[in-house]
Design brief:
It is built from 12 helices and 10 strands. It is of the alpha/beta class and 329 residues long.
């Protein structure tokens, strides 16, 4: 280990030259936990999404879709009771179905009666419910990263004065883990940026979870979109940034570029959902294409730490910014 000009321990030369961790196995394990929809329903689901994009879905087909949704929800419940899927997997599967129904409402010209039918289905069969684990969480998208993060980022634990940013905090699960496991040194702090607009009560759940975990004093919550807020943060001032916000291609590119400006040389930048291949990229689920584009623009200015479901890089100490497009290197 070496010590930088802040007195912070960094991996030494031998560690920095180690082969990056590329694991399709880890991505496969995560995919197996999240891919809970039946093959039959998933095929129908993807077809529905595609036709919504093409605007070729007819209202007369909605009753059949509603019937498929009802059957799939019943099947998910039975598989959960049989121990075939986890509680987190069940919650994620229900969220995917809820999103499909919301896209139907937003993307189709529907009669008032059909809209009421869909709304009734969501209210009766898809209410948001809290997981049984401690805290007020409706989803768990982070627990399967904890051991991986501990292995790769554990050297940060206990170092004083670490400054971190999280884009997309949702209900605070990852934020609390970061504070409890990495930012335990004196005067360390995490800035959490999120619009808190996913569902009514989301922000209240975040606040509760942060307080219950004893993390409130080290977390600064900022409500709003990252693209509007990141320009106000000081350049080159952050040791660790976790990007898990909007997965729209342009949003990911903007977040990446602005975070690259914020992270200090030697600092870490982590992207979520790089290999989120449950659905085609055109549905906005995977951040992979945008991350690849960004990393191409800063090629040679970072060290790849790992690349699987997520991507983590360490900014070189002599990084000179984003390469201009269209100029020879």
């Amino acid at each position: 280990m070496t010590v930088n000009d802040k007195g912070i321990h960094q991996p030494g030369e031998d560690a920095s030259r180690a082969r990056p961790h590329r694991s399709s196995a880890r991505a496969t394990q995560i995919r197996q936990q999240l891919a809970v929809l039946s093959d039959r329903f998933r095929s129908s689901y993807l077809d529905c999404f595609q036709r919504l994009q093409e605007r070729t879905l007819d209202e007369q087909e909605v009753p059949a879709i509603v019937g498929d949704v009802t059957a799939e929800l019943e099947d998910l419940g039975l598989r959960y009771q049989a121990g075939q899927i986890t509680e987190a997997g069940l919650a994620y599967g229900r969220t995917q179905i809820r999103d499909l129904l919301q896209r139907l409402v937003d993307g189709c010209e529907l009669t008032t009666q059909t809209r009421r039918t869909i709304d009734r289905l969501v209210v009766d069969s898809l209410p948001r419910s809290l997981l049984s684990a401690p805290g007020r969480y409706t989803q768990d998208w982070f627990s399967f990263h904890e051991e991986h993060w501990r292995r790769h980022f554990g050297h940060l634990a206990g170092q004083p004065g670490l400054q971190a940013v999280e884009i997309g905090s949702f209900e605070g699960r990852s934020a609390c883990w970061i504070v409890q496991n990495l930012l335990i040194g004196e005067n360390s702090r995490l800035i959490c940026i999120d619009p808190f607009a996913d569902y009514p009560g989301q922000e209240a759940n975040f606040d509760h979870n942060v307080r219950a975990a004893g993390c409130a004093e080290r977390i600064v919550k900022i409500r709003g979109r990252s693209q509007q807020l990141l320009p106000y943060l000081a350049a080159g001032s952050y040791d660790f940034i976790y990007v898990d916000g909007s997965h729209e291609v342009l949003d990911v590119l903007q977040d990446a570029a602005m975070c690259w400006r914020l992270v200090r040389p030697g600092g870490l930048l982590v992207f979520d959902d790089y290999e989120h291949s449950l659905f085609p990229n055109s549905f906005g689920m995977s951040a992979g294409p945008a991350i690849d584009t960004f990393l191409g623009l800063v090629k040679g200015q970072y060290e790849l730490i790992f690349q699987d479901w997520q991507v983590a890089v360490r900014k070189n100490r002599r990084s000179h910014g984003i390469r201009p497009l269209g100029r020879p290197v």
